[in-house]
Design goal:
Layout: E1 4-8, H1 13-22, E2 28-33, H2 36-49, E3 57-60, H3 66-80, E4 85-88, H4 103-128, E5 134-139, H5 152-173, E6 177-182, E7 187-188, H6 191-199, E8 210-211, H7 212-224, E9 229-230, H8 236-245, H9 247-259
Parallel strand pairs: 1-2, 1-4, 2-3, 4-5, 5-6, 6-9, 7-8
The structure holds NADP nicotinamide-adenine-dinucleotide phosphate.
The site of NADP nicotinamide-adenine-dinucleotide phosphate has 31 residues, from helix 1, helix 4 and helix 6.
Length: 260
Amino acid sequence: MDKVVLITGASSGIGAALARELGPQGAKLVLGARRVERLNELAAEIQQSFPSTPAPLVQRCDVGIAADVEALFAAAETRFGRVDVAVANAGYGLNAKVHETSEEQMRDIWQTNLMGTWYVMMHAARVMIPRRSGHIMVVSSVVARRSLPETGAYAMTKAAQLSLVQSQRVELAAHGIYVSSVHPASTETDFFKEASRRSGHPVGMIGQSQTAQAVARKMVRRMQRPRPELWPAAGSWLGLWMASALPSLTDRALARKSKG
Ligand SMILES: NC(=O)c1ccc[n+]([C@@H]2O[C@H](COP(=O)([O-])OP(=O)(O)OC[C@H]3O[C@@H](n4cnc5c(N)ncnc54)[C@H](OP(=O)(O)O)[C@@H]3O)[C@@H](O)[C@H]2O)c1
């Protein structure tokens, strides 16, 4: 794949799995996250297994800091001359009831998950518009369309991401740029460990889980054949249909589940 792909949150989980899928296909990778040592290990692993793959560009990037995201795009342009696909993937989860979420938790998750995504969408548009091509892919969640108990703050950021995606997809279509969202269900990554740490209690997966590799493979396919939304878990639509067609029944089922 002769594409320059920039991935935020590439040090773990879905972002790292995506890099592992794209590296062997010859993509030029731009990997951002705060844990640079993990990015360096990942870049070395890809290079070792596939020596013909161009060396990935690794850079520390806290997506909650606008200047970090700007610098990541600037470095990508300097090294590779363009960005073909920008994946706004960095994010984390939090489990807390709406009235028990602290102001600090609310501001922090908004800054990372939503503002961090917006910074990527903004800078990606800036570098893609002059070239009249590109794909901005935002990793949202199934909860973007139906929040669950104790995921209010997290789901708020995921729903807000989807709103930005829907607007920007139409805004940039005339510029030859595609904007899409990805909505994973429970995926086997460090997400739950980090959510447990931030929430102060254990947070587990909900329903059937999928691997990060399975999600990443579907994302790669969508880079070749873009569509507005990717829902990697087959069963997601059934739950969403029920949530929108039968909201009260869905509430009761969720209430029963959260008690039990
Ligand atoms: N796993 C799931 O069940 C699931 C389901 C639906 C959606 N998602 C979404 O998928 C995305 C990836 O999550 P994951 O499952 O792969 O979890 P993960 O394994 O915990 O990975 C999260 C990634 O985000 C990065 N990150 C977090 N805060 C950041 C910040 N301020 N700046 C830069 N990078 C940051 C982390 O890197 P550093 O810590 O090194 O910065 C890490 O690389 C998230 O947006 C998440 O909401 C996950």
